[in-house]
Design a protein that fits this description.
The structure holds three protein chains of three kinds. Chain B is mainly alpha-helical. Chain B has twelve helices and two strands; from the N terminus they run ααααααββαααααα. In chain B, strands 1-2 form a two-stranded antiparallel ribbon. Chain C has a five-stranded parallel sheet with strand order 2-3-1-4-5. Classes of the chains: A alpha/beta, B mainly alpha, C alpha/beta. At the A-C interface, strand 4, strand 5, helix 7 and helix 15 of A face helix 1, helix 6, strand 5 and helix 8 of C.
Chain lengths: 501, 354, 277
């Protein structure tokens, strides 16, 4: 079950390259066009979807549900094929289709503009300018498709493993070079990758099962799976027809348990060891309740420090890199399935009883493992990263947590906070009350002073001598921002109190 | 002193707070401005035009300081463009302050004539500029319905890029080349308007997008940069001339800081086309309200008597009524939507939590 | 047999990759050496040269005399070095100066920002924020520099033959891949590509000679060479300058013939564009 994904633009020899690669390696070749055909067979209005995205219209809810259906179909087909055989997939979105599966070789194929223009003008019989226009349009459409579907930019090259420019290389030779690379250990399936693939497959099958039911088809629900437990989140409006979901999904092969959670958004909570009875649970729940968010748990044990520190050798070093050692889900069935007394299991049980449960997963490995495991298509409003690197000293731990938070927020564009930061930002406790009262008092005092002595103050401000005018100018430019700041704190605290954010 | 600063009783105080609130909601909602409402509003309360503008700029400056500290980032700023614009805009402000204050001094010196010249002048500039702004805004929001989103038209920019008068200056971040003279003119105009009526961003952003042809994000970022310095400079200038009524500034804050949050929340729940439409209508009503007041100033200057003097109080009330009508109905629409969105959100969450 | 250029952002592991390739292919690694030899050849302080090459364009984007000279000198030196073949160049402006030469394999390294920041922190002892700011600043400066001088987008993938993301693949793997590509027939040194390289060198040397002359350094002209025959196109202000340019070009060693298509600004104003042979 090796997977190579080729992402290509139009007329970049990408298809030829993928086919040559598949032929050389003896892998199965699967293209996005085949996925489209399959979607058409299953009554998913794929043409309509494409037009809507290309025209940049706001997609209606019905259409975004169809989008989910297509995604589920594409994922399930890809996972099925990948679990049976080694595959080469080619399409615009190759590198994004299987989020969280670590060992995929992701290749982007490009060609210089001049050659592409020639190819287009020959095959479509267009003038040079028209051909250029055509390429730019198609490229734009792809960009919006990828943005709509996966919420990332197509042109961010750090999302690929490598980019090949076929302007000068022949398709055959490029394929040959990649062939040998595909054999390297870092692209071989790991237990964690297989598990992630199975989770994706299960979730997408469940989603497809819902799409086959007349009633459930219209529900805007998100389905995710982990270790046989299927999580269904639905927004507030979709409560009707919910009873159905459990029965429908329960019938899918491989489902051990179905958990339904009503949620508008998600919070991801990453910690090495959880304290199910600790005070942090309450703080997190407070936000989750005010946002209507489901809480997804990741129990994450970082790999050894060497792996964490510097995978790319610094400029000065010339020694061998440590390389990535992929470790993954602790694939010890007895432990993950049966340890009902573990911290994460108890916390999870609490979340279920409060109706806020998202997924729960246990991971181990490097920063890259963690980054790869987070699904970019799920909307997270907040990531909580706290209490990892428990074996390290306090200052080291603090530094590492900051580093990882930065990496996470850089990569996912979601705020990453520790529990303490959450409390100070969202919690309205005694400290905030004191601050608010103090600021209100200051503002009140300022107002009282100004209005009580208004005659004197105004007289002072309008003195004609330059000296006094300068003094009043300085006074005004200092006092006004001060008042704005103080009073601004009061208003924002009041609004926070009413959860108006 | 009685000439310059009005006496404040409780009703007037309340009205100023209300003005601040409406202006705040509008500015949070549109993303910039609010001055177009607060300046005429204060003038209707009897505040001298110069004082209204001066207090308004000071108010804006304080808000910008807090805002800039809160965001802590300027995003896409073409600093080179910003500096060029800023230098000319500061000249423009200086010019505007000079014109306003000298007109204020020239208006007969005492009695009702004092300040009328400045009032008239400020009102006229206000009417002309905002009339065009609102018309283009309304046209934009109505046209958007038929066509798809086609991005800003580059027609003016292309036409102007033919205007290659030496020296051309290259702006690396925005990736455009503009003649120095064009920048000087636009900067001067932006500064002049900011100084005269306290409205700068309305002109600066579209000018940068349409005239220079720079990307919208860069235009907005550069405008933020400009606004902070221009606000500070305007505030310093008016304060130096003694035309800032600190009481009015504080009262404006009482309303506006609350309003800004609510207005900003509104953008999340209200469709963008409606935002433009509402704004356009509000601005045009502001323009009409100011236009109604013009005959009073004309007569005070003994230039022209258009209507029977006995009708002046009525004209003033009509002007005030139109202004409040526009502001209140705009705010009502926004608040209604905000409230609905807020309640829907809370209900959704409580239904989830139960 | 090929020439490999490596481009990357600061602290992306470019030097390590160059060493790795040196070991695998037995090519010669070069970076600063090109600049040193350039400094020696044209009698410039090396530090001065290096600084001019790396500093950001001034606020006014004006090219000074020194600036344009140094740039063309470095180009000459780089092409001169490239003629040795079997080199790995991981210094300044590789893919830009060796554009259009078929046996040049243009490699770019990408690394996730946080890893680069970490490397920067480890090497310099800066705080994370400082390191991040410094990196972003250098990236932006480079991008602007490349855009300004060469009219190309530093991030355009079509500028490179192969981009490796060191966040996802190991240095070893990237090295192996590059080794295979460098040994493939597409990047083999051929008579044609060597000829092109020699032409490129002659073009740059003529341009260097013209730029070295205070009277004509800033003229807007283009030089093309083919086997010793040089063609100069452009527009200058006066007949005198035109003759001076032709003289200078003809004096360069290796120039056998000089065709000029230089029009005079005054002619163009009158409506005629004339060339003369």
């Amino acid at each position: 079950m090796r997977i190579i994904c080729v992402s290509r633009g139009s007329k970049t020899h990408g298809k030829d390259f993928a086919e040559a690669l598949a032929a050389k390696l003896g892998y199965h070749c699967l293209s996005r066009e085949e996925l489209f055909e399959e979607a058409v067979k299953r009554r998913i209005p794929i043409g309509k979807l494409e037009t809507a995205i290309v025209m940049r219209r706001d997609t209606s809810e019905a259409l975004s549900i169809e989008l989910e259906h297509y995604k589920a179909l594409a994922t399930s087909l890809l996972c099925e094929r990948a679990l049976e055989n080694n595959i080469v997939y080619h399409g615009r979105d190759g590198h994004l289709l299987l989020p969280g599966v670590g060992h995929i070789l992701k290749i982007r194929v490009v060609l210089d503009l001049e050659s592409r223009i020639n190819l287009v003008s020959q095959s479509l019989n267009l003038t040079r300018n028209k051909a250029k226009q055509y390429i730019e349009n198609v490229e734009d459409d792809r960009r919006s498709w990828v943005r709509k579907f996966y919420n990332v930019d197509w042109d961010v090259f750090t999302l690929y493993d490598m980019v090949l420019n076929l302007s000068q290389m022949s398709v055959q030779n490029a394929a040959l070079a990649v062939c040998s690379m595909a054999q390297l250990p870092e692209f071989q399936p790991t237990p964690s990758a297989t598990a992630a693939l199975r989770d994706l497959l299960l979730a997408s099958r469940c989603r497809l099962r819902l799409s086959e039911d007349e009633k459930a088809r219209r529900l805007n629900v998100k389905v995710r799976a982990s270790e046989g437990i299927v999580h269904v989140t639905y927004p507030h409006g979709a409560v009707k027809g919910l009873e159905n979901i459990t029965t429908l999904i329960g019938g899918v092969e491989g489902v051990r348990e179905v958990v339904c959670t009503a949620a508008e958004t998600n919070i991801l909570w990453i910690q090495e060891a959880f304290e199910p009875e600790g005070p942090s649970y309450g703080s997190v729940m407070e936000i989750a309740a005010s946002w209507g968010a489901a809480v997804e748990l990741v129990k994450f044990t970082p790999g050894d420090s060497e792996e964490v520190a510097s995978p790319v050798p610094a400029e000065a070093e010339s020694e061998e890199p440590s390389g990535w050692r992929e470790t993954g889900i602790i694939d010890d069935e007895d432990r993950t399935y049966q340890d009902e007394t573990s911290d994460i299991a108890r916390l999870y049980a609490r979340l279920i009883s409060d109706g806020k449960a998202g997924r729960k997963r246990t991971l181990q490995g490097s920063q890259k493992t963690l980054l790869n495991s987070i699904d970019r298509a799920t909307s997270y409003r907040l990531i909580i990263l706290d209490g990892i690197f428990l074996t390290k000293g306090t200052s080291t731990r603090k530094r590492l947590v900051t580093e990882w938070s930065n990496a996470l927020s850089d990569s996912l564009k979601v705020p990453v906070l520790t529990i303490d930061q959450i409390v100070s930002k969202y919690h309205f406790g005694p400290k905030q009350t004191v601050q608010m009262i103090a600021c209100a008092a200051l503002a009140g005092l300022s107002l009282y002073t100004v209005f009580h002595f208004d005659d004197q103050i105004l007289a002072f401000l309008s003195r004609p001598e330059l000296k006094w005018r300068l003094v009043s100018m300085v006074a005004i430019t200092a006092f006004v921002p001060f008042f704005a700041q103080v009073y601004g704190t009061v208003t924002s605290s009041v609004l926070k109190l009413f959860k108006f954010d | 002193m009685g000439d310059l600063f009005i006496a404040l009783d409780l009703t007037t105080c309340f009205q100023v707070i209300l003005l601040g609130f409406i202006g705040g909601v509008l500015s949070g909602f549109i993303g910039s401005g609010g001055a177009f409402f607060m300046t005429p509003g204060m003038m209707n309360l009897g505040v001298q035009g110069v004082v209204a503008v001066g207090s308004n700029i000071t108010h804006k400056f304080g808000k910008a300081m807090v805002g800039a500290r809160k965001h802590g980032e300027m995003g896409h700023v073409d600093k080179k463009l910003g500096i060029f614009m800023l230098v000319t805009a500061l000249l423009g402000i200086r010019l505007a302050v000079w014109i306003s204050t000298s007109l204020f001094g020239s208006g007969g010196g005492h009695g009702e004539g004092s300040g009328a010249a400045a009032n008239l002048y400020i009102s006229l500039v206000f009417i002309i500029v905002l009339f065009f702004v609102s018309i283009s805004m309304l046209r934009d929001s109505l046209r958007k319905r038929e066509e798809g989103d086609s991005g800003p038209s580059k027609r003016i920019a292309t036409w102007l890029s033919g205007f290659r008068l030496f020296p051309m200056i290259d702006f690396p971040v925005a990736d455009v080349k503009v003649s120095l003279w064009v920048i000087l003119i636009v900067g001067l105009a932006v500064g002049y308007l900011a100084g005269t009526i306290g409205v700068g961003g309305f002109l600066g952003v579209p000018a940068m997008i349409y005239v220079f042809g720079i990307p919208t994000a860069v235009a907005a970022g550069t405008e933020l940069f400009l606004a902070m310095f221009m606000g500070a400079f305007g505030a310093i200038n008016y304060a130096l001339e003694g035309f800032v009524d600190i009481r009015l500034v504080l009262l404006l804050y009482l309303g506006s800081l609350l309003g800004v949050f609510i207005g900003a929340y509104g953008t999340k729940v209200v469709n963008e086309r409606i935002i433009r439409l509402v704004t356009g209508v509000i601005i045009i009503l502001c323009v009409i309200s100011r236009a109604v007041a013009v005959p009073i100033y004309l007569a005070q200057l003994k230039l022209l008597v258009l209507v029977d003097p006995s009708l002046y109080p009525m004209l003033n009330s009509i002007s005030k009524a139109i202004l409040y009508l526009s502001g209140l109905s705009g705010v009502f629409i926004i608040l209604f939507n905000v409230g609905r969105g807020y309640i829907r959100h809370r209900r959704a969450i409580s239904s989830i939590n139960t | 047999m090929a020439i490999i250029t490596i481009s990357r952002g600061l602290k992306s592991g470019g030097e390590a990759l160059a060493r790795e390739l040196e070991k695998r292919l037995g090519y010669k690694c070069m970076s600063r050496e090109v600049i040193s030899s350039c400094a020696r050849k044209y009698n410039i302080m090396e530090e001065d040269l290096y600084q001019k090459l790396t500093e950001a364009p001034s606020l006014w984007h004006r090219m000074t005399k020194e600036h344009s000279r140094y740039l063309i000198y470095v180009k000459c030196a780089l092409i001169e070095a490239a003629r040795q073949d079997k080199i790995i160049y991981h210094g300044y402006a590789g893919p830009l100066y060796l554009d259009g030469i078929e046996h040049v394999l243009k490699v770019r390294l990408e690394a996730p920002l946080d890893l680069r920041i970490q490397n920067m922190v480890d090497d310099t002892g800066l705080s994370r924020e400082e390191a991040a700011a410094a990196l972003l600043k250098v990236d932006e400066e480079r991008r602007r520099w490349v855009k300004f001088l060469y009219g190309k987008d530093w991030y355009d993938p079509a500028l490179y033959d192969f981009i490796a993301n060191l966040g996802n693949i190991s240095l070893d793997t990237a090295g192996e891949m590059i080794e295979m590509l460098a040994n493939s027939e597409e990047f083999a040194t051929t008579t044609r590509s060597v000829n092109r390289l020699n032409d490129l060198l002659l073009e740059s040397e003529v341009l260097a000679a013209i730029t070295a002359d205070d009277r004509i350094w800033d003229q807007n002209i283009k030089v093309a060479a083919q086997k010793g025959a040089v063609t100069i196109r452009g527009m200058v202000k006066s007949r005198k300058l035109r003759n001076l340019i032709v003289e200078t070009a003809e004096s360069v060693k290796g120039v056998t013939r000089c065709n000029t298509h230089i029009s005079l600004a005054s002619d163009q104003l009158r409506g005629g564009i004339f060339g003369h042979d």
